[in-house]
Amino acid sequence: MMESNNKKKSMGSSHFEKNTLVQVFVKKNKTSRRDFLKWIGFSTASVTLAACKGPVIKSIPYIVKPDSITPGIPTYYASTMMDSFDIGSVLVKTREGRPIKIEPNLTSKYFNTTSVRIQSSLLSLYDEERLKNPFINGNKCSWKVIDNYVITHLKKISKIKKDIVIFSSSYPSYSTKKLIQDFTNTYPTTKWITYDAISYSVALDASEKIFGIRGFPLFDLSKTELIVSFDADFLGDWSPENLAKSYVNNKIPKKSMLKHIQIESNMTLSGANADIRISRKPSEINKILFKIYQKIFLEKKINENEDEEINKIAYLILEKGSKSVIFADGNLESYILSFLINQKIKSNALQKNKFILSKESNDKKLQKFIIDLEKEKIGAILIHNTNPIYSLPFSSKIKKFFKKIPITISFSMKRDETNETMNVLAPIPHWLESWGDTHPLTGFYTLIQPTIQSLFNTRQFQESLIIWGKIPEKNYYEYLKKIWEKKIIPQSNVSSFNEALFHGVVEKKENIKTNKLTYDYQKKIHEYGVKLINNEKKGKKNLELRLYTKISIGDGNQHDNPWIQEFPDPITRTTWENYLTISSYDAKKIGLKNWYTGNGSMNGNCVNLIKNHKILIKNIPVYIQPGQGIGSIGLSFGYGQKIGKLSKICQGKNAYKVYENFSLIQKNIQIKKVNKIHKFACFQVQNTTVGRNLVKETDLETFLKKSKKIWNEEEKILTHKGMLPPEKISLWEDKNNKKEKNGHHFNLSIDLNACIGCGACVIACHTENNVPVVGKEEIRKSRDMHWLRIDRYYSKKINSSKNDKDFFKNPKVSFQPIMCQHCEYAPCETVCPVGATSHGMQGQNMMIYNRCVGTRYCANNCPYKVRRFNWFNYVNNQKFNYNMNNSLGKMVLNPDVVVRTRGVMEKCSLCIQKTQYVIGVAKKENRKIKNEEFETACSISCPTNAIVFGDINEKNSKILKKIRDKRNYKLLDFLGIRPNVSYQLKVKNLK
């Protein structure tokens, strides 16, 4: 693998023209090998040339090779992924002009991790159901017709002084903001309304009141020793910037190791990783936060008669002082209380003069917009990349108002509930086909650059504004470059626009003045506390609903993405749907159950969700979740769309229907059992290790004070010579037990203290290795195809008694990534009758697919159960109508990895194609391979660096240090099969 700085090549195109050859290729029903080679040799060259050097006038055969493209050699571009919910600084890997993988841009200080959604967004580029042409009133037309139609209407509306509303999700683009200002000069009644399906408005309101800045505070946890989180899933989607990396940097076992206390209702990623987790319903959490605020901010004396947990938490915060940080989620007061406590203790996690600007939600402005709609003050609406008719709680009301507006324009990639009601459909390109920039953080700017020519007849939103607003620049690229060269580059750390493109990110000095706290909150907060206590008595009988986001689906913007839908939720291990999570205590009261069928799949009861005697959502499946707060239920956003190719397969429910007043907590909820039975698609139905010591854990005090023999006991095997460690026993080696390992020998290490279970590695593996999507029915039959899985286990807490009654109330959660362990003495190899699986000199267990006859003996003999059997041809099979069933979707496939056929076994290869590529490059350049140059797809994508891969024959390698660490152990080592994958024991700070 090349170093990240050598990966990036900038692109300097001014405008992209259409490549009809690509469209012809896409329209073919089937693609033969000959067709593919013709396409590679002819049209891809022109696509790539267009992307790199400007408009193409004539096609160029591949015998005249573009300078920037060498067949078989990847090219990397620095860019930024941005949609309605996510933002990330990335490197885009392209092969022969096709983007095939998204990787993190590690040269960026911020937003430098690639989540499940960021990586999966690649597949949306090759979606056959994208809008391919503009439409007026349902009729296909040209862009020229659209321009004349829109300009005529905008002029009329401007004359009668009705509002022209640009309605979009948060769009932190410096150049776009300037462009809309210029557009407003032409049409003075223009207004820009920001609407995020999942609102960050209360967090921004609280920040504005406390700090004087309408931005989300930036936190850095690398020097923090105590985190107390009040229902804030900060390892999930609570903060717009991923906090996992700085969190894990301080989880290295040492005396000052981070202690994490999570008080929450739903079981979240943050709660699953917490040292101490306290399960409560939302109203109780708010009450605990208020009492802690009183003890810390108002210096109220700790009352010994009060809840012991509150006293302990308050004492810990006061003891750690500035090394503590408080997080809170929910209502405005929760954010205000947490910010005030952080200010009082002078938390070092709160970064001064640094605010995240990627979220711009403003509920007050949105409410004013709704009033203007009702009064018919709006003459035109331009909806950019958001779907309010699906996501607004009062969408049916909005739909009626939209129909009364003279001209409605939708800028989107695909058909959705909103653009079905629009006059004009102006299809926009994918972010991988677009130019753009972002300003997501104080003093931090990024660029978006195209990595492929537009596949369809689409046009950027900004390009349309330039034409309709009669702005002098010819296109958006010129506008963007001019703005950057004038306003950003001169005061930044780069000297030219091309240099900025190369790095993808720039930094610029910006001085932000924050408020000193002058507003007296004490009276207001006291009134809030009194309300909390009074409201607690009123709704005690009813349930409290906590709405949340899954790390796979997010706000639902990418709901039609098969990779995302088939990604197993880290906590529940389910796919393809959402459900109501409920505690076993509340489920028993109502008579709700989950049960297993004869084939091992899981079924469950369904309920109606009721508020104020009105059914809001019918037939929601119920998932009994260990650790769910008693008296609370959970439901995730992002499901329930009616339009899209996956809408029939994914039978999820629309949680936005109950998102009243944009509040994540809905009170006075009732549920009523119905007769419907739901069939879950679960990756994992075994929830415990059945007493086996698979995920080794200990507490910090034991780790620091006691011998390794106590907390990481070496497994031994009984032999005729007594108890011996596995490495001293062999059927094959000589008496001296010496085996020469010449050349490279690859190992992989997984630090369980650093793995948070986010699943970024799962999608990275899926993308790199052409793993097929199999669908909900096959998942139910345990025929999933992921080469890498993250097992989740529930167990009793460390040092708990045997009769722990709180096991289901609040269990300990452990994550363990499992892939092929590449055993030196692999049991799969000895039973294969045709020698399809064998061992390589570099320590990798290899598969020869065209020799495999599918006996599945290897799968039966594998103790880790990591081999996957291909039950079907997933390519060109109408039963599996996903990305491998059409020519456009196949463009995402990695040409370095074969697409497997029916009847063969497949599994993790430790990315042998990547290791051999590195070896080949070094050999060609006649040099030694650089330290840590070897990487796998999972190690590159891991946001916390939990996965480390390398050559153990390299003396200074990270992997060798990991293996020699005293926390190191091998899974099922007592079998004597000597895996080349090892784990590092998890340490929890319980003191």
Task: Walk me through this protein's architecture.
The chain has 991 residues and is α/β, with parallel strands linked by helices. Helix content is 28%, strand content 21%. The protein contains 31 helices and 40 strands. The strands form 12 sheets. Strands 5-4-16-15-14-6-7 form a 7-stranded mixed beta sheet, with helices on both faces. Strands 20-25-21-24-23-26 form a 6-stranded mixed beta barrel. A 4-stranded parallel beta sheet has the order 11-10-9-12. A hairpin with a 2-residue loop joins strand 4 and strand 5 (139-140). Helix 7 (174-186) packs parallel to helix 17 (461-468), helix 7 crosses helix 18 (476-488) and helix 11 (282-296) packs antiparallel against helix 20 (522-538). The chain is globular and about 95 Å long. The two termini are 42 Å apart. Mean pLDDT is 85; it is low at 1-6, 9-29 and 36-60.
At a glance:
The protein has 991 residues and is α/β, with parallel strands linked by helices. It has 31 helices and 40 strands.
Q: Helices, strands, pairings?
A:
Layout (H helix, E strand, L loop, with lengths): L3 H4 L12 H8 L5 H9 L1 H11 L21 E8 L4 E9 L2 E7 L11 H10 L9 E2 L2 E2 L2 H17 L3 E6 L5 H13 L3 E5 L6 H10 L5 E4 L6 E5 L13 H6 L9 E6 L4 H5 L2 E4 L2 H15 L11 H13 L3 E5 L3 H13 L5 E7 L6 H12 L3 E7 L3 H4 L3 H10 L2 E5 L12 E2 L10 E6 L2 E5 L12 H8 L7 H13 L8 H7 L1 E3 L14 H17 L4 E6 L13 H4 L14 E3 L1 H7 L3 E3 L5 E10 L2 E11 L7 E5 L28 E15 L17 E3 H6 L2 H4 L5 E3 L2 E3 L21 E6 L8 H9 L7 H5 L8 E7 L16 E7 L8 H5 L5 E3 L5 E3 L9 H5 L6 E2 L35 E2 L5 H13 L12 H5 L5 E5 L6 H7 L3 E2 L11 E4 L1 E3 L3
Parallel strand pairs: 6-7, 6-14, 9-10, 9-12, 10-11, 14-15, 15-16, 20-25, 21-24, 27-40, 30-39
Antiparallel strand pairs: 1-2, 2-3, 4-5, 4-16, 8-13, 17-18, 18-19, 20-26, 21-25, 22-23, 23-24, 23-26, 28-29, 30-37, 31-32, 33-34, 35-36, 38-39
Helix pairs in contact: 7-17, 7-18, 8-13, 11-12, 11-13, 11-20
